[in-house]
Amino acid sequence: MSPDLKTRLDKGLKDDAEIRDLWLEGIYNRDHRQTFKKTNEFYDFIIIGAGTAGCVLARELIYNIPHINILVLEAGPPSTQINDIMRSPCAFHSAFRAVETDWGYSSEDQKMPGIIDPNKEVLNKGSHYPRGKVIGGCSTVNAMIYIRGQKADYDLWAAQGSEYKIWDYDHCLEAFKAVENNARKSTDEEFKKYHGFNGLLHVQDGQIDFDDIIKDVIKVAKNLGIPYNNDFNGVRQYGIGKHQHTMKDGKRFSLADGYLTDALRKVETYPPSKPFEIGSPHGLSDDAAKFVAVNVKSSTHVLNIIWDEKKKDENVAIGVKYFYDGRVHESFIAPKGEVIICGGAFNSAQILMLSGIGPKNNLEENNIKVRKELPVGRNLLDHPTCGITGEVSVLNGTSNSQLNYSSCGLELAMFYKGDNKGKVLNQKHFLDERPDIQLHVSTSILDPANATSGKKNDILTLLSTLNLPSSVGHLELRSSNPFMHPKIFLNFYEKPDDLYLMMSSLKLSCEIFKQPPLSTVWGVESYEYKEMSDEDWEQYIREKTFSSSHACSTVKMAPESQGGCVDHRLQVYGTKNLRVADASIFPTIPAGNLNAPVAMVAWRASRLIEEDYKNKA
Q1: 3-state secondary structure of 92
Q2: What are phi and psi of 552, to 5 degrees?
Q3: 577 pLDDT exceeds 70?
Q4: Which of these, 152, 257, 261, 284, lies nearest to 201 by C-alpha position?
Q5: 270-279, 337-346, 516-525: which has the minimum mean pLDDT?
Q6: What whole-number distance in Å separates Cα of residue 404 and Cα of residue 208?
Q7: Which family is this protein grouped under (predicted)?
Q8: What is the pLDDT of residues 179-223, one digit of tens each?
Q9: Which residues are CB-neighbours of 43 under 8 A, at least 6 positions away?
Q10: Lowest mean pLDDT among 8-17, 60-69, 209-218, 422-431
Q11: CA distance 227 to 236
């Protein structure tokens, strides 16, 4: 860092600190002069997080359980703060990196023995890890790709015991269809079998025609024996084809647009015959009417779960403590109520650990009372991604400098099986019923390392994502400070199979570049991938890999004896009135982007919560 840059940064930090001091002085003065009495707020349900899961849950619960009220706590701002780039699919890269709507997480550097030569130490360098901190969560800032995974993913969830039958593919398909509103115009009976058309999440086909060079990639794939697939969410996933996206009329459509907006429409009082109590709208009085509605508090940072301290032998959740508008607040749940954590793989795990639920050693070293020892944070799964970028010699051969408004640059994809020996792939891999590689084809620079490289040439990018990794990471508390991010260890390529699968996919990408008409008509040539040994490939993969930002499984749904943190009904072991419903509960990682599976889990969770609520005395 240059001395001038350091001076400017130091001055900026000093200016920020001075303004924060003035803000705190104003908050203190306001609170000191406050005259009205502070009252306890009670809600039937408190949902932590207004991301994909929180939005679906809020809507489903408010309409399906009579006479309840719900509080949703969201750490980020409303999506209107980035309305322009958020709505515009072409600005997805900017939305994903917007400082005001991103948590700012980073993974840790990790050294480990090499796979090709175990006697050599290799480095997985830590990097920025985008996570949506905004109403709508990651559905407000992601690439909008609508992928569910494979039937086998969910049947694996169900195979954990007879009570897990409610998570088999048939049950999950019911939820996928209930959430989805698919706009495809020409549909056959097979497509109708797998898709929904009346849900609140709009899904549509791409709105643009492919560049000629992308059309030629499809030709190359066909010549290699990769079949065309017009529905990656249908009877089979393998093949090459167009993604569908969570968009409506060419614009992003988030879960907040569909579900939270609808939830907020319902505002009633109950019972209508009773008077409304002025000054205490969220009390527990039997003599006054209550609101039946959803309230959302944005820019709210949850500190921890509040426990019933009178019950010494039980961990009974009774509310949530959070920081909002310069103050610490507490909100409580009514009888029969629940706290539902929907913060995502990092936040949900951190909130549980800050509340005394997690690994004993990590809690004790941070001076947190251990209420229930569970392996929270210990099963972190993610999809590593690594790409090959080729230079196109034909001038203006791609549209990377003029990306269409309705395109996120990720329209064409291939799914196929990698080779666990790192060999070049063939037709048996392309027709395998359990593909584990998702390859994106784009005329944009998608590798974060190259995105700011200044390269202006026309390019073709083939981006490989390992969809069924066997390496497992973890996260742990850095501190008991709830504003401090946890340590995130992704552990990519710890298992040899993962490295070889990725290697085989990158070798296929190089082969694709060599095929006519890409090599002849377009003059596609890769930047730096000539003849490389497997050791060269390992070095390249570790240097170029980045996360797909598909973190999950840190609060795993499984029997407690098998490393589970929540049961089949998503209730946290060793607690009452506390559930988790988001990507953190996935027993295994689905083979594809995670937004659709998270919405599915939230819809399924709403039915479980409704059943349990009605069965409570």
Answers
A1: helix
A2: -160, 175
A3: yes
A4: 257
A5: 270-279
A6: 8
A7: Belongs to the GMC oxidoreductase family.
A8: 999 999 888 999 999 999 999 999 999 888 888 999 999 999 999
A9: 69, 70, 71, 282, 295, 331, 332, 333, 334, 337
A10: 8-17
A11: 11
Under a CB-based contact definition with an 8 Å cutoff, are residues 584 and 430 in contact? no
Dump pLDDT digits (tens) for 439-480.
Answer: 999 987 766 655 544 445 688 999 999 999 999 999 999 999
d(CA 60, CA 262): 10
- Ordered by where they begin, the domains of the chain are 41-109+127-173+253-269+291-382+473-488+554-616 (3.50.50.60), 207-243+384-466+493-544 (3.30.410.40)
Strands (E) across 217-352 are located at 239-242, 244-245, 247-248, 251-252, 268-270, 290-292, 294-297, 300-307, 317-324, 327-341
Distance CA 604, CA 168 (A): 11
Question: Which pLDDT belongs to residue 408?
Answer: 81
The three-state secondary structure class of 487 is strand
Sign for the pseudo-dihedral over CA of 416, 419, 420, 422: negative
pLDDT single digits (tens) 264-320: 999 999 988 887 776 677 878 777 889 999 999 999 999 999 999 999 899 999 999
Rounded CA separation 413/427 (Å):
17
Residue that the structure tokens 């993610």 belong to = 382
- Secondary structure of residue 497 in the 3-state scheme: helix
DSSP letter (8 states) at residue 228? B
Work out the mean pLDDT of the chain and round it to a whole number: 92
* Pick from 145, 183, 166, 298: nearest CA to 606: 166
Q: What is the CB neighbour count within 10 angstroms for residue 301?
A: 13
Sign of CA dihedral 172, 586, 589, 344: positive
Do residues 414 and 239 make contact, with C-beta atoms less than 8 angstroms apart?
A: yes
Q: Which two tokens mark 276?
A: 């409304």
Asked if residue 216 lies in contact with residue 522, where contact means CB atoms within 8 angstroms, the answer is yes
Which residues fall within 8 angstroms of residue 548, CB to CB, at 6 or more apart? 382, 383, 384, 385, 465, 593
